[in-house]
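hiii so um. not sure if this is the right channel but i have a protein structure encoded as tokens and i wanna go backwards to a sequence. like what aa goes where. can anyone help
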């Protein structure tokens, strides 16, 4: 037993020594990026899938748990693959050119996005929409910082909020099929299910009656 413990400690010391080697930093960063992508993807998707599945999906408990597990795995896997691809391509470009330039990041991410998130499925669609909204805000701020557009005299956020909500509710009411399925489910719950009730039970306690009365 003592020999096994000594071997384990020696292995740990060797691993820690390897992690301190600067010449392996780029390769090790790719591996840790894969790890962090997998963990972060699971942390983000699991609670979201749990809430959305139990709120809006029908089926047995086993089916719901399977759906949650599949969504969590897909998000975790894709994010891990993307970080691995992005950091690997970034390191390769820096090695080839001898330095890191801004275009390296753009190109590596474009290739990673095409390879990992190019499949049009619900998980990838949600991730892309999440990023798109934040990109639009960031590019707007960057345009102001660089002087491409003038600094607004008043906070434009109230106008943005009004236009976003006006547009999404118009789409929901008249072009619902264009909206992402989970958004359709959320809006149906909020704006249509609230129009229907039979008694106090499905007015305050439940959203919909489950009996045959």
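sure thing!! here u go:
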């Amino acid at each position: 037993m003592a020999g096994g413990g000594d071997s384990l400690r020696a292995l740990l010391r060797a691993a820690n020594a390897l992690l301190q080697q600067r010449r392996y930093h780029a390769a090790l960063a790719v591996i840790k990026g894969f790890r962090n992508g997998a963990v972060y993807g699971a942390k983000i998707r699991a609670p979201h899938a749990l809430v959305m599945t139990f709120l809006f999906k029908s089926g047995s408990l086993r089916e719901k748990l399977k759906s949650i597990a599949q969504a969590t795995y897909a998000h975790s896997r894709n994010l891990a693959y993307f970080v691995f691809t992005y950091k690997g391509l970034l390191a390769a470009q820096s090695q080839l050119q001898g330095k890191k330039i801004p275009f390296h990041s753009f190109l590596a991410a474009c290739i990673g996005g095409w390879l990992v998130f190019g499949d049009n499925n619900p998980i990838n669609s949600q991730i892309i929409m999440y990023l798109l909204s934040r990109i639009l805000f960031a590019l707007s701020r960057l345009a102001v910082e660089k002087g491409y557009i003038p600094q607004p005299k008043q906070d434009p956020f109230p106008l943005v909020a009004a236009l976003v909500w006006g547009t999404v509710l118009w789409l929901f009411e008249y072009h619902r099929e264009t909206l992402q399925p989970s958004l359709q489910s959320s809006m149906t719950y909020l704006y249509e299910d609230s129009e229907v009730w039979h008694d106090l039970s499905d007015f305050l306690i439940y959203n919909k009656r489950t009996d045959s009365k």
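oh and The chain has a mean pLDDT of 90.
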